């Protein structure tokens, strides 16, 4: 486990979880995917997040995936790759149970969604009290996960994030903004010290604009397909080559928009098609798909990015 108090700046892949046809975890394909991500230069992996089908995994399966990732990365010579584990649950008690299990299995940070089952009761005050209660007893530091698409539309404000970060320094250390609100990212990044809080843009679609707004890198589903290409954009930005970075961002935006239309099983199908491991099998009700079943207007912009990925560094 890392001793870093803050997730390091960089590209993070919200790792998909591969399954066999009987819906058991495909450990070998998952390990192959972890290896390609690490060799592609990512800074970290987000395990059992939305793309990892967290709601479909048992507590023991969650621990198995974290242990497998940590052991495989160590074996491959990538001990510094950061592991962030999705630990969201409807109650404080269950969330803390997931966080404790993640810490025992080797995760560095927890990623926590707001509770959404009783969405009508989830006022900003209730949500802030939830995160405060989790932060007080969490075994590892946590990042707030703002993704209205999977939380009945709950959209955590910049005011709430800033208050929580200031109230729990060293315990609430970041936020993932899949909401795509760059103004929110800008407000959070400018209100909190860079050395104590890590705001992340949560999609490739706005990777470069997010960096300009103060993102600590990116946590992006498309990195499952093209980790090296995301790292390349990051380096172009750091090197001040905004023209080339903008051109690459355009390709990522078109590919990310296409990928967003195929669902989690579709992301896995694309990886399987272009990189020859795993399959487009999700746990029901997500079902199964293949890249051959996807229309050309979906595959074409994704293939453009895959072609860049296969060019090398």
From TrEMBL:
UniProt entry keywords in alphabetical sequence: Lyase
GO terms, molecular function: 4-hydroxy-tetrahydrodipicolinate synthase activity
Statement: the UniProt record of this protein carries the keyword Lyase: yes
InterPro entries the UniProt entry points to: Aldolase_TIM, DapA-like
CDD domains named in the record: DHDPS-like
Pfam families registered for this protein in UniProt: DHDPS
Residues of the active site: 145, 176
Residues that hold pyruvate according to the record: 219
Family: Belongs to the DapA family.
UniProt-listed PANTHER family: 4-HYDROXY-2-OXOGLUTARATE ALDOLASE, MITOCHONDRIAL, DIHYDRODIPICOLINATE SYNTHASE
UniProt name for this protein: Dihydrodipicolinate synthetase family protein
Organism: Tolypocladium paradoxum
